[in-house]
Design a protein that fits this description.
Elements: E1 9-20, E2 27-38, E3 42-46, H1 53-60, E4 68-73, E5 82-83, H2 89-98, E6 100-104, H3 115-125, H4 134-141, H5 157-169, E7 175-179, H6 187-204, E8 208-211, H7 215-218, E9 223-228, E10 231-237, H8 241-250
Parallel strand pairs: 3-8, 3-9, 6-7, 7-8
Antiparallel strand pairs: 1-2, 1-4, 4-5, 9-10
Helix pairs in contact: 3-5, 5-6
Amino acid sequence: MTSTSVFVPACSAREVVRVYGSGAAEVRALSGVSVAFERGRFTAIMGPSGSGKSTLMHVLAGLDRVDGGSVVLHGDSGRADVEIGAASDDVLTALRRDRIGFVFQAFNLLPVLTARDNMLLPLRLAGTEPAEGWFAEVVGRLGLTDRLDHRPHEMSGGQQQRVAVARALLPQPDVIFADEPTGNLDSHAGAEVLALLRSSVREMGQTVVMVTHDPVAASYSDRVVLLADGRLAGEIPHPTADTVLDAMRELGAPVVTR
């Protein structure tokens, strides 16, 4: 894991602008945002509705293009830095397969496949297998050893999201982006998934960047980045649910907690 005394970025945005529409219908979702996300840390992105938090995650992950500025996925262990905004569609597809993991509010599991096959699908599409012993370690840590032959309809929501977390971890990506990963879960299952993301950072050295509206979810992170009106609005190191709730109230955001 990265030493706390040296900030090593996993991904970063510099003066990023993203505009939707034109003329009277123009919406500036991001207006010159510059921010970096530390390798081996858990960062939450928060802000009021329309603040640009989901847009920021989408451009960092190569799911959306920028209209100005630059987005970089930083390399490590022999992997090169990649300028996301300048990358071709083929390069972006390879990055999303090999170096970027995703966990969404919707579990996005294929109903006809077992948990094992859902976990391994991205790697198999790439013609590869997980590193020796890595599959067993991930499955064991996520408590899914006895669920590998179950299909999604045979598992609870929390178990399905754990399968999605395993699918994201197995390629050993540079960064995992989690978009409201507990949005479809009850409070108990949500806490389980957040604890798993937290342990993937502490115990496996993973980098996680999560968009959430929930101060309790954000309190699992090492740092909260705040957005408002498409601009950075501050950050909270070592957040607690209370410090996040206070910051969101200052930004005028209605806050719903579990």
